[in-house]
């Protein structure tokens, strides 16, 4: 196990411990309100021209998921589930964007090792994670935001279970698109 993987694993254990504390889900600061415009941002990425803005995705649903660290067990499982369901999201006019404090090089390695075909964004300063109430000191918390094609925040997920989260988001996306 490399030093990067060891520290990532230890960080994941600490975050899992915080998730068991009552009230820990409120960590991360104030979140943007539902049914209001989602905070716009531009972040570097490992794909395309090197930067992605939320506004680039107007006209599409966006699953904006924040996660603590590349190569950690929970984050890897969550990313694999989103990748496995990617064709279902694309069929629903939805795109997936992952955000963590890891740098672009780490994201590129993570995408290569896991076969991820969706962008991971490098929020190394935590600025975007803070705007979404998903920042805890030096890592992003495991939160997901579902944003509609007009850029309006429609759903917030806290205390995410990586094993079933993608299925939960797909089910809610079905409900929102039907109603």
UniProtKB/TrEMBL annotation:
Single annotated GO MF: thioredoxin peroxidase activity
Domain Thioredoxin: 32-178
Family as reported in the entry's similarity comment: Belongs to the peroxiredoxin family. BCP/PrxQ subfamily.
PROSITE patterns (alphabetical): THIOREDOXIN_2
EC number: 1.11.1.24
GO biological process: cell redox homeostasis; cellular response to oxidative stress
GO cellular component: cytoplasm
InterPro entries linked: AhpC/TSA (IPR000866), Peroxiredoxin_BCP/PrxQ (IPR050924), Thioredoxin-like_sf (IPR036249), Thioredoxin_domain (IPR013766)
UniProt keyword Oxidoreductase present: yes
Catalytic activity: a hydroperoxide + [thioredoxin]-dithiol = an alcohol + [thioredoxin]-disulfide + H2O
Xref: SUPFAM superfamilies: Thioredoxin-like
Function field: Thiol-specific peroxidase that catalyzes the reduction of hydrogen peroxide and organic hydroperoxides to water and alcohols, respectively. Plays a role in cell protection against oxidative stress by detoxifying peroxides and as sensor of hydrogen peroxide-mediated signaling events.
Keywords from the named record: Antioxidant, Disulfide bond, Oxidoreductase, Peroxidase, Redox-active center
Top EC category: oxidoreductase
Name of this chain's protein: thioredoxin-dependent peroxiredoxin
